[in-house]
Write a structure and sequence with these properties.
The protein is of the alpha+beta class and about 100 residues long. Helices cover about 35% and strands about 25% of the residues. It is built from 2 helices and 3 strands, in the order H-E-E-E-H. The termini are close together. The relative contact order is 0.21.
């Protein structure tokens, strides 16, 4: 549960600092990063925006392979696909992705 919440909090943070926007788009283009304590160590998330979209999200972590990392990767895919942090929990990783 903690891992998923950490990722969502980091993404929301990245969105909030870049969502100030400009006359040219929805976001302030750039790459934003945040680092927080994860279950197995620090989790660093970098989110890249252009003026109108979430371009890339990368997470560097030591979370459990096959569990936490799978949930994180699926959440990243969902955020980019939906262009939002308003995503569903990951089936099979409900606790990790909340």
């Amino acid at each position: 549960m903690k891992r998923g919440k950490i990722l969502i909090v980091m993404l929301i943070f990245a969105l909030s600092i870049s969502a100030a926007g400009s006359a040219k788009g929805v976001y302030k283009a750039g790459t934003y990063s945040v680092e927080v304590d994860g279950h197995n160590g620090d989790v660093k998330v970098e989110t890249t925006f252009d003026a109108n979209s979430i371009v890339k999200v990368e997470a560097k972590h030591d979370e459990t392979k096959g569990l936490g990392d799978t949930a994180i990767n699926k959440m990243i895919e969902s955020v980019i696909e939906k262009q939002s942090t308003d995503i569903d929990v990951i089936s099979g990783a409900t606790v990790s992705s909340k």
